């Protein structure tokens, strides 16, 4: 198997170096770029198209949340883990809204970090179970049902549930015998109906509505 290609974004040089050494020392990983602020992270993400991005939240010039937002706008399939020292649920909520697939504290055990990277690379969403209910509750307040939302068709619901499981467009096309173009069109329609802008928001909407089950994260 080819190594998982990583971009590591953190304004602390020692943290970046430590993460690089940890991941590459484990085998199966290759760090393709390091960024010391959000602007560099966006630039390197677009240049190198890494498999997984580890993104610090608090950085100078452009913070991690804005960097996530811009990366997702340029490469919607990007798989990003927010990695931070801060437990505040608002940071987690902001990162997930921007398009992050996971949120981990820098106090995470090395083995758990490696497993998280592998899980996000597979397409899973890493939301800490203890915080998940609160985050979904916040999303319920932040994204209330609008009075004239058109309901999803049965086919759209199937696509949304697969998105919530982390299945990418090519896999969805194979499973449903659709073209990738058809899947992309269905997703655009789903986003418009749910008033969301990306896959992560659509997946979380499905979770809070009970249309899909929460993916278990690391214990």
Number of domains: 2
H/E element order: EHEHEHEHEHHHHHH
- Binned, the helix content reads 40-55%
CATH topology of the largest domain: Rossmann fold
Q: Describe the biggest sheet?
A: 5 strands, parallel
Number of helices: 10
Distance between the termini: 26 Å
This entry's quaternary arrangement is: single chain
| CATH architecture field of the largest domain | 3-Layer(aba) Sandwich
Shape: globular
CATH homologous superfamily caption of the largest domain: Response regulator
Low-confidence stretches: 215-219
The whole-angstrom Rg is 17 Å
Average pLDDT reading: 83
Which CATH class of the largest domain?
Alpha Beta
Strand order within the widest sheet? 2-1-3-4-5
Would you write up a description of this structure?
By secondary structure, the protein is of the alpha/beta class. It has ten helices and five strands, in the order E-H-E-H-E-H-E-H-E-H-H-H-H-H-H. It has two domains: 4-126, Rossmann fold, CATH 3.40.50.2300; 142-208, Orthogonal Bundle (Arc Repressor Mutant, subunit A). The chain has helices spanning 13-26, 38-48, 64-74, 89-98, 110-122, 129-142, 154-164, 169-176, 180-194, 199-208; strands spanning 4-9, 29-35, 52-55, 80-84, 102-105. Strands 2-1-3-4-5 form a five-stranded parallel beta sheet, with helices on both faces.
């Amino acid at each position: 198997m080819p190594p998982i290609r990583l971009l590591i974004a953190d304004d602390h040089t020692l943290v970046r170096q430590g993460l690089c050494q940890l991941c590459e020392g484990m085998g199966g990983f290759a760090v393709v770029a390091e960024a010391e602020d959000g602007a560099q992270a966006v630039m390197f993400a677009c240049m190198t198209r890494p498999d997984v991005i580890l993104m610090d939240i608090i950085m100078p010039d452009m913070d991690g949340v804005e960097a996530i937002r811009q990366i997702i706008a340029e490469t919607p399939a990007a798989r990003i883990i927010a990695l931070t020292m801060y437990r505040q649920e608002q940071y987690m909520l902001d990162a997930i809204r921007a398009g992050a697939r996971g949120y981990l504290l820098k106090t995470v055990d090395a083995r758990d970090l490696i497993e998280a990277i592998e899980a996000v690379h597979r397409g899973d969403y890493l939301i800490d179970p203890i915080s998940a209910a609160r985050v979904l509750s916040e999303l319920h307040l932040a994204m209330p049902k609008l009075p004239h939302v058109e309901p999803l068709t049965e086919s759209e619901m199937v696509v949304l549930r697969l998105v919530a499981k982390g299945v990418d467009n090519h896999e969805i096309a194979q499973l449903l015998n659709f073209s990738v173009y058809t899947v992309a069109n269905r997703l655009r329609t789903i986003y418009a109906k749910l008033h969301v802008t990306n896959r992560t928001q659509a997946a979380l909407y499905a979770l809070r509505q009970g249309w899909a089950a929460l993916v278990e994260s690391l214990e």
